[in-house]
Fold this sequence. Notes:
The structure holds three protein chains of three kinds. Chain A has helices spanning 2-9, 13-29, 40-50, 69-85, 100-113, 132-140, 142-145, 183-194, 207-215, 225-236, 249-278; strands at residues 57-63, 89-94, 122-127, 172-177, 198-202, 221-224. Chain A is an alpha/beta fold.
Amino acid sequence: MLDLLLRFQAMDRRWVFLGMAISIVVPMLLPFNLPFKVDGRVQDLYDRVEALEAGDAVYISADFDPGSRPELEPFFRTHLHHLFRKDVRVVMGTLWPTAPPLVKPILEEIAGEYDKEYGRDWTFLGYIDGRELAIKSLGQSVRKTYPLDDRGNKTADLPVMLGLDAIRDFDILTSVSAGFPGTQAYVLQIQGQYNLEMASACTAVSAPDYIPYYQSGQLFGLSGGMPGSAQYEKLVYADTPEENRPRLAATSGMNVLSVGHMYIIVLLFLGNLAFFLTRGGKED
Amino acid sequence: MKRTLPILITFVIGVIMVGEFFIPHWRYRALTGELLEWGIILTAGAFILGLVNLIQVHLPTVVERGTDWGYKAVLLVSLAVTLAMGFSNGKQRLDSGMEVSFSYKWIFDYVYVPLSATMFALLAFYIASAGFRAFRARNAEATLLLVAAALVMFASVPIGEGVPVIGEYLVALKDWTLDVPNNAARRAIFIGAALGAISTGLRVILGLERSHLGGD
Amino acid sequence: MDLLTITGIWISIFLTLAILSFLYDDNPIYKFAEHLFMGVGIGIGTIEIYYGVFQPKLLRPLLEEHRLLSLFPLLLLVLLFAKVTRKHQDWARIPIAFIVAAFAGVKLTGEANGRLVEQVRASMPDLQTLYETNGWWDWDNGGAGVISGLVLVLGLCACLLHFYFSTPHNKPMRAISRIGILTLMLSFGASFGFTVMGRISLAIGRAEALLGLDQPNSLIKLGSMEVHRMTATRWTTVGTMLLVILSIAWLKRRAANSAEAD
C-alpha cells in the first residue's frame, strides 16, 4: 500500500492531466442534475435589478475576453435578458480591447430578441483605453469619454442617452469584470466619489477579493465565477418555461464543476496521505 | 532641465488630479476632464509604442534568419493580416454577418477566441498537478490553508451542498469563512496596500520617486 | 454551412488542440499557435485602440472639428514616440511624467477613499444591530452574528499587527501575529479554492467547444450529406487530435534525426 502510494506520488504529471480531462469530459457526455442554492450576494443583485422600472438606465462595463467567457458570458447574457425584459435602457462600454468583438454581437442578438431598437433602447459605446483615467472620465461625463458610439454616431444625440451624462445619472452600474481594469478600479475611482449603486460579476479568482466591497456596501450585489452565473440564471429564468429558456451554460457547467472539484480534493487527499505515511521518523 | 521639467510636470499634473476628487466646480472639472483625455490618448500611444518596439525586435531576426525566425515570422505576418483586415473592414468590422467572409471578425471568432480561451484553460491542468505534487500539510498553517481550500471547493458545488445532514452546515461554514476570516485578511491587505499606494503616490508627485524618468 | 465557416470551425479545433498539446510536451505546433496568438492579439488591440481612442479623440477633433486644444496631446504623443530613437529619447520623459503623474493622482485618492476610509468604516461593526438581527450566531445566515463581528475585527487587527515590522515583535505581539497568520491562511485557502473553481470553469468552456455542446445542435449540410452539428464537431475533434499527434511525432522524429546527423 505504502509502495503504491509512493509510486503514485512520483508519477508523471501527464497522468494527472489526463485524469483532469476525463473528470471534465465524462460528466459532459453523461450529464446529471443536482440542485443548488442561491447565495445572498447573487440574490441581492437580482432583487435590485428586479426593482428597476421601465425607462431606467443601466451602464454595463463589459470587461472580459474569450479567456473568461465560460464564467462571465452566462451572467452577461442573463443580465441583458433581465434588463431588456424590464424595458430598461442599456448603455454599454468596455475597458478591454479584446472585448468588443465578443460582447457587441451578444448585445445585438439579445436586443433583437426583445425588439429593442438601437439608439433608442440600447447602444454600444465601444472600447476606451486609459484604465483608471478612463473610469474617472466616465464619472465626469460618459458623453465626453465616448463622443461617438461604436457605430460612429454622436453619443449626445442618441435618444437612449436622454438625461444621461455623468455616470451618476445611471440607475445602476454593472461591472462584468475578468480582472484589471474592472470592478476594483470602478469601486476605487468613482463608486465612492459619486455614491453609485454598483454590482459586479467577476471571475472566481477575484471573488474573495471583492467580498469586502460587498460587505462594506460599495457593491450591492456580487456574482462570483460560474456558480454565481448559474445562481443568477436560476433566479432570472425561475418563471420561464423550460422550452422558452435559452441555453443555460453556467447551470449545465455546475455539475461538471462538481466532478472537477472532487477530483482535485481526492488528489490533495492522496498526495497528503502519501506524504504523511512516508514522513515517519523524518524531522520537518 | 532634462529632469527638472518632467519633475515639475509630475508635480503640477499630480496635484491637479488629486484635486479632482475634492473640487467639484465645473471649471476645475473642465480642466481635469481635458487632462484625462490627454492621459487616455497617451496611454493608448504607449501601447502603439510597444507595438513599434515589438516590430523593431522581431523583424531583424526574421530578415537575418536568426533563432526561431519562423515563429517570429508567424507573429509578424498574423499581426499584419489582422491589422490589414481591421483597417479595411473599418467601422463595419464588428457587424453581424461579417464572419461569413474572411474578415477581422472571422479572425477573432475562429483564431483568437480558441487560442485565448485554451491558453487559460491550460491552467486547470496545471493547478491539478501543482495541488497534487506540491500542496502538503507540513505544519499547522499549511493544514489550515488546505482545510479551508477543501471546504470552499466542496461546499461551493452542488455535490457538497447536497450531502445529507451536514451539507447545509458545510455551506454555512464556507460562507462564514468567506465573510469573516477572508474578509478580515483582505481588509488588512487592502488597508496596508492603500497606505502603500498613498505614500508611493505622494512620493511620485513630490518628486522623491524618480525611477519613471530613467537614468541620466 | 459555407466552406469558410467549416474551415473556421476546423481551424478553431486545430488551434485548441495545438495549445493543449503543450500538456504533453513543448512542440513546434504549440509554438506556432502561441506566436499566432500573440500576433493576432496585438493586432486586435491595435485596431480597437485606433477606432476607440485615436479616431474619436484625436483625429476627428483635429481634422473635422479643428479643435486646437487637441494639438497638445498630439505633441505629447510625438514626444512619446521619440523613445524609439536613441538621440532624442530624453524628450519622452515629458509625456511619461504626465502619464505617471495622472495615474498617481487618481490612484492616490481612489485608494484612500475606496480601500482605506470605506474599509475601515465597514470594519467597525454595530454589535447591537448585529445582535438584534442575527443574535450570537445564525446558521441560516452563514454564521452571522455578534461572535462573527468580533472575530472579524480581532482578525483584522491581528493581520495588521502581523505586518507591522517597525519594531521587533515581543511575546504578546508574536501571539497576536500568529492569530493574524492563521486568519491569512484561512483567506488564502478560500482563494485557492476559488482559483481552482475558476480554472476548471475555463477548461469546461473549451471542452464544450470541442464536444460541440456550445452551439445549437442544428442539422448542417456538408456537401450532399446532412449531419448534426454536434456529431460533425466531435468527429472533427477526433480527426484533428490524430492529425496533431501524428504531426508532433513526425516533427520530433525529424528533429531527433537531424540532431543525430549533426
